[in-house]
């Protein structure tokens, strides 16, 4: 069970490093959230959350939207934009 969660988090990390997903995808996986759960927690429509998982869209988000995600994921805005080193 725990190994499955760790494997999903590592897959998310690799997808972000490969440029296939935004850092939001990693942080969402780390908190074991789905786009629907994150949408409710951040007060953002589910389809928008899914769209923000694309790196090119995520990189253009306004700080107010990033702050909503950061608050819902219990990280800072700067942490949200990056991946941890290990």
Task: Characterise this structure.
- Helix 1 (2-17) packs antiparallel against helix 2 (23-30) and helix 3 packs across helix 4 (46-52).
- The protein has 86 residues and is mostly helical.
- The protein has a single domain (2-81), classed as 434 Repressor (Amino-terminal Domain) (Orthogonal Bundle), CATH 1.10.260.
- Helices cover 69% and strands 0% of the residues.
- The chain has helices spanning 2-17, 23-30, 35-42, 46-52, 55-58, 63-73, 77-81.
- It contains seven helices and no strands.
- The chain is globular, with a radius of gyration of 12 Å.
List keywords for this structure.
86 residues, mainly alpha, single chain, 434 Repressor (Amino-terminal Domain), 7 helices
Brief characterization of the structure:
The protein has 86 residues and is mainly alpha-helical. It has one domain (2-81): 434 Repressor (Amino-terminal Domain) (Orthogonal Bundle), CATH 1.10.260.
Based on CA atoms alone, the radius of gyration comes out at 12 Å
Categorize the overall geometry.
globular
Mean pLDDT: 95
Number of helices: 7
| CATH class (first level) name | Mainly Alpha
Count of DSSP strands: 0
Distance between the termini: 21 Å
CATH architectural label: Orthogonal Bundle
pLDDT < 50 stretches:
none
Q: Could you describe the largest sheet, including whether it forms a barrel?
A: none
Strand-pairing-aware structural class: mainly alpha
| Number of domain units | 1
How much of the residues is beta strand, in percent?
A: under 5%
Helix percent reads: 55-70%
């Amino acid at each position: 069970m725990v190994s499955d969660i760790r494997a999903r988090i590592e897959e998310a990390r690799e997808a972000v490093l490969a440029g296939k997903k935004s850092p939001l995808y990693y942080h969402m996986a780390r908190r074991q959230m789905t786009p629907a759960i994150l949408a409710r927690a951040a007060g953002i429509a589910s389809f928008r959350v899914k769209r923000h998982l694309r790196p090119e869209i995520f990189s253009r988000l306004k700080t107010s939207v990033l702050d909503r995600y950061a608050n819902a994921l219990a990280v800072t805005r700067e942490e949200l934009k990056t991946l941890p080193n290990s």
